[in-house]
Amino acid sequence: MSDHGIDAATEEFVAHRNLLFTVGYEMLGSAADVEDVLQETWLRWIKVDLDQVQDCRAYLVRITTRQALNRLRTMKRRKEAYVGPWLPEPLLTTPDVAEDVELAESLSMAMMLILETLAPTERAVFVLREAFDVSYEEIAAALDKTPAAVRQIAHRARRHVDARRPGKMTSLGKAQAARESFQRAIETSDLQGLLDVLSTDVVLLSDGGGLRQSPPRPITGAEKVGRFILGGLGKRTGFGSEPTLINGNPALVVYVDGELDGVIAFGVDEARITGLYYVRNPEKLTRLASGTSLTLR
């Protein structure tokens, strides 16, 4: 490809990079893996004759989807050997992501974990169709399937997700209020205050990846979760927390003696916290440590 062709390819790739990153992340849940996918996408993209491409966005999404599917299948083997619960890599996001209700819901930890239960092809179809409104014809081209087959896969995936989907998306204001109540209860070691903001069937998942101590299984129920939180986080010397937005939703960044310890993302139904997702695996916190906020799409 000529220098002019590379410049044109670069311009198109950069223009769509945020979108491609988001597609890859919703399929993989790992920013590090998405970066590898985007590198592979770029290497293939610069070999394409742009004069033959009618829709650069669709073509780039097609390449990214195929590369992400290949990576997803290899990641499945890694996750099977993972120590303890696996959680998506948390992304520090800009406020505009939180204001986009549909995007914030699709990026939430709760939804990302639901997507983990889909087969790779189902996940690709669901993400492209539901989150990005890609046509059945474009998805079919990306997956080398017929539009009719893609429609069937989309229907099956949507039914699977709807059966597991949390309740109606809580407003940003209510979710932030729940986070504030949670933070205040931890800082003051107020068990009753914590129980007041936790739903009775709240679930806590903690991901240490075998590198930091974390419960090997989910903890369920307000009383158990509340006592675990106060007995662990609340009693650590040098404990501190800061509110932030992770995956477009309210979260807390946790510090111990001034060092980044992890991030707690929340699932909120109205005023009660239904899910706590505590990522402590240091390999998943490198982007967070750098303080880089992402504008997606």
TrEMBL record:
Pfam families found in the cross-reference section: Sigma70_r2, Sigma70_r4_2
UniProt GO molecular function: DNA binding; sigma factor activity
Nucleotide-binding as UniProt keyword: no
Domain named RNA polymerase sigma-70 region: residues: 15-77
A Gene Ontology biological process term: DNA-templated transcription initiation
Protein family membership: Belongs to the sigma-70 factor family. ECF subfamily.
SUBUNIT field: Interacts transiently with the RNA polymerase catalytic core formed by RpoA, RpoB, RpoC and RpoZ (2 alpha, 1 beta, 1 beta' and 1 omega subunit) to form the RNA polymerase holoenzyme that can initiate transcription.
Designated name of the protein: RNA polymerase sigma-70 factor
Species name: Kribbella pittospori
